[in-house]
Amino acid sequence: MSTPPLQGLAPLLDARTRLLVLGSFPSVASLAAQRYYAHPQNQFWKILGALWHLPLTDMPYSERTDALLAHGLGLWDVYASCERDGSLDSAIRHARLNDLHSLRQRCPALEAVAHHGGESFRHARHTRALGLPVYRLPSTSPAHASWPLARKLAAWREVLARHGLAPAEAA
Question: What is the distance between the alpha carbons of residues 83 and 31, in angstroms, rounded to a whole number?
Answer without folding.
Answer: 13
